[in-house]
Design brief:
This protein has about 230 residues and is mainly α. The chain is built from eight helices and three strands. The model has no long low-confidence stretch (mean pLDDT about 90). Keywords: Glycosidase, Hydrolase.
Length: about 230
């Protein structure tokens, strides 16, 4: 109603939403919301009491399963803390999820995977604004773990038996300021170059959409310099 003008009134919006199966609203406040008009929709016969019950029922079942109506001492979720969330079991599961969710778009001449027996003595360059900045690795609404559990690409690669050189090139993802010299110097002396690029929440997030999919600022230039 307010943004897309699909409906014209709060009452019309309440009816359309419930008929579409919606049962939860992120409202604009108590004075400016849709759900307070549901009783009016019910009174005018635009929706039925049975429909209203069908919409409400899963919400309260979910709240019951979360233990919201149980005494805190009986709610297992109330005892959870970072020791549980960041346990070794969960960190191993996160690692497994990361490994299984990688998408390799291209593998020219079988560059990957790098073989362990070939690594000792190799020179790696890790470049780009995402190479060693923990602050930019997490998406919108993502839980951020304690720093000791955050591995940037640089920190992760430093666990291998290789010589690592690092050059951010840009201070942050917008990459308005770019140092070509430090990227070229690092990449030019390396056997393997890992370029870490992206956007991050400083560039795109909820209510902050982008008009194109291009890399921000000088990031494409950074990539091209590393390739050269």
């Amino acid at each position: 109603m307010l943004g897309h003008h699909y409906t014209r009134t709060f009452l019309e919006t309440a009816v359309a939403s419930m008929n579409a199966g919606c049962n939860l609203e992120l409202s604009y406040g108590m004075r400016n919301n849709v759900f307070m008009h549901i009783p009016q929709a019910l009174a005018t016969g635009n929706i039925t009491l049975e429909m209203l019950r069908e919409r409400v029922r899963p919400l309260f079942y979910t709240r019951m399963r979360l233990g919201e109506f149980a005494p805190p001492a009986m709610n297992p979720y109330s005892a959870l803390d970072l020791n549980v969330v960041q346990s070794a079991e969960h960190r191993n599961l996160s690692l497994e999820a990361a490994v299984k969710s990688f998408v390799l778009l291209k593998n020219v001449r079988g560059t990957l995977p790098l073989r362990a027996q070939d690594l000792p003595g190799k020179r790696f360059a890790v470049v780009g604004p995402f190479a060693d900045n923990p602050q930019v690795l997490f998406g919108d609404y993502a839980p951020v773990p304690e720093p000791r559990y955050i591995y940037t690409p640089r920190k992760g690669l430093e666990t291998l038996p290789v010589n690592i050189s690092f050059a951010a090139g840009c201070r942050e993802p917008r990459c308005q300021w770019y140092s070509r010299e430090e990227v070229v110097a690092a990449a030019g002396a390396a056997d393997v170059v890992v370029v870490c690029l992206g956007t991050g929440v400083s560039v795109e997030t909820e209510a902050k959409d982008r008009s194109d999919l291009a890399l921000p600022g000088h990031q494409l230039e950074l990539l091209q310099d590393a390739v050269r």
